[in-house]
Write a sequence for this structure.
């Protein structure tokens, strides 16, 4: 019988420990917290001697494990490093995964080693886009793009700032959203991770992809944008420009079709994502009680202001945002 620790965070923690111990069938087992993310999922590490596993706790009422299982298989089948699902309990929302290590790229990347790590990240990204099947995934369609954009006025402006847009302001906002959505839908559509950033790349034997359960079929620039316009790291624009150009070279060599006006498509995809993220961070604060994310919104306002200033089409949007936020 495996030894079960007596101190639990809550009943689900105790349940996850008992399930993993029974599935692994080893003793003694040591359990520790591996990580938690912005969703309702949590991760625990189980150890026995030199071996270790990751236990995903995904409450069925809030999370569905099936997309994770399916996408993990698609990634691995395409030669993209990702955790292997070794056991599952879908009724209770538990998965047993291979342990890819404790370090994410976010934790080790810096100005001195960024060239090396982003070189590898670009290889993973191009391989993922070129090889991973996107058929059967949800489409990153107009409805989804618009729902994401609505997070900014609904959660950041209305809930956080107490602002309701006037009729003229709403028309300005709607016009900007329409431009962004049309640009996204016009791009070649590929497998899209939706959060391809250093926090979701594990440093194992190379880089491995995690947190991919929300993958869709969508715009080719989306994951590239996520990689370099991160929630927790910002890079000088000249370095980003060089990395984006290197991606374009590798993507074309791999046979990927890219937008004709690639840089504009990249920038406009960024505006959509940045506005969405600002809204999500406000929602995490007010709905989910996760206040730390709201402190990162100034980074995304800077992204919006810097990119938006390059395009006359978004002058009204920037004026509207500065009206209630000022410079960040």
């Amino acid at each position: 019988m495996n030894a079960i620790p007596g101190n639990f965070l809550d009943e689900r923690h105790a349940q996850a420990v008992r399930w993993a111990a029974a599935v692994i069938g080893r003793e003694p087992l040591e359990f520790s917290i591996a990580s938690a993310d912005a969703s309702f999922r949590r991760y625990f590490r189980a150890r026995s001697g030199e071996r270790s596993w990751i236990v995903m706790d995904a409450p069925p009422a809030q999370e569905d494990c099936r997309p994770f299982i399916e996408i993990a298989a698609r990634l691995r089948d395409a030669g993209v490093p990702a955790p292997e699902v070794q056991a599952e309990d879908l009724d209770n929302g538990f998965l047993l995964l291979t342990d890819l290590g404790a370090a994410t790229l976010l934790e080790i990347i810096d100005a001195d080693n960024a060239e090396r790590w982003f070189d590898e990240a670009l290889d993973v990204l191009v391989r993922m886009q070129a090889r991973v099947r996107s058929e059967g995934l949800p489409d990153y369609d107009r409805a989804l793009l618009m729902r994401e954009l609505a997070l900014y006025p609904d959660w950041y402006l209305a809930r956080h700032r107490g602002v309701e847009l006037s009729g003229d302001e709403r028309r300005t906002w709607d016009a900007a959203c329409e431009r962004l959505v049309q640009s996204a839908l016009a791009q070649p559509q590929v497998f899209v991770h939706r959060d391809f950033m250093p926090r979701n790349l594990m440093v194992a034997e190379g880089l491995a992809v995690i947190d991919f359960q929300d993958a869709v079929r969508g715009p080719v620039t989306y994951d590239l944008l996520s990689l370099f316009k991160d929630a927790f790291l910002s890079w000088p624009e000249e370095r980003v420009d060089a990395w984006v150009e290197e991606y374009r070279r590798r993507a074309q060599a791999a046979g990927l079709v890219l937008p004709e006006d690639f840089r504009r498509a990249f920038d406009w995809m960024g505006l959509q994502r940045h506005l969405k993220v600002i809204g999500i961070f406000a929602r995490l604060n007010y709905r989910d009680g996760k206040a730390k994310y709201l402190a990162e919104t100034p980074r995304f306002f800077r992204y919006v202001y810097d990119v938006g200033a390059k395009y006359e089409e978004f002058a009204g949007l920037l004026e509207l945002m500065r009206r209630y936020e000022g410079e960040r």
Remarks:
- The first helix runs from residue 11 to 24.
- The domain at 105-325 is CATH 3.90.1200.10 (Aminoglycoside 3'-phosphotransferase; Chain: A, domain 2).
- Residues 1-5 have pLDDT under 50 and may be disordered.
- The chain is about 50% helix and 15% strand.
